[in-house]
Amino acid sequence: MARVAVVGLGTMGLPMARHLVAAGHEVVGCDLDPGRVEALGAARAADPGDAAAAADAVLLSLPSVAAVEDVVLGPGGVRSAARPGTLLADMSTSPPALARLLAAECAGLDVLDAPVSGGPRGAEDATLTIMVGGREEAFVRALPLFEALGRLVVLVGGHGAGQAAKLCNNLIAGATMAALAESCAIAVHEGLDPATLYELLTASTGDSRVLRTRFPLAGVESAHPASNAYAPLFALDLIAKDLGLARELAEEHGVAVPVATAALDAYRAAQRDGLGALDYSAVYRRGDGPEGSD
Hints:
The protein is α/β, with parallel strands linked by helices. It contains 13 helices and 9 strands. Strands 1, 2, 3, 4, 5, 6, 7, 8 and 9 form a 9-stranded mixed beta sheet that branches. Helix 9 packs across helix 13. About 50% of the residues are buried.
């Protein structure tokens, strides 16, 4: 059993930390909101450096690139406080370049990028997909922790490979949702019954996990965000962030991504309409109304 510091106890970090506690690990929580640490019911660290100082492993679950940089490389951060050989896994979604930077700047630590897919439900059920980049030795060491959190854990490649795979995944998810929103807007204008449309789409080539978890028309599936005032399973602000990172990565390699760019434009329009805190299926509501389109 390991002493594990979990930095970031939001909708993903908190359930992951709980699974580590249930697996018998000694968990130390760190979050800007003290209430989240109290909800975990584990030891509390005053700051990331304090959390890392006595830890065997540090797991990050943070909402932005800036937060990851500050927690690891900032004054009193993980880099300066962790003991040599400490495992550091960034389970946030960040650019591959940041993963490589962290590995270079924290040369005395076992650094992995390990972003996850599956959302809060996957975190609650410990069924996440975990995409890992880094050295195989560090991966093997981290595997018991990751297996307590996910159903599929894969070493994709070297530093940054996990983040690259995650951005590819979220590009697909974001573009799919934007296309689904547009198709539903057309269907509503044509007077199609939403439940009938859902039945047809889930049995046709338009089917996808995005469709089966985020049909954007309310009242068809009770568990979907649209039927719950678009309560976020994954916030629109976050999918916009990830699509922006995916587009930047594509630009680094000279890859044209017009579909991703069009999807990102749709999410940014939704953000301007004040929908950023809602689930990203709320992109359907951008424009002048629920059936609006830009």
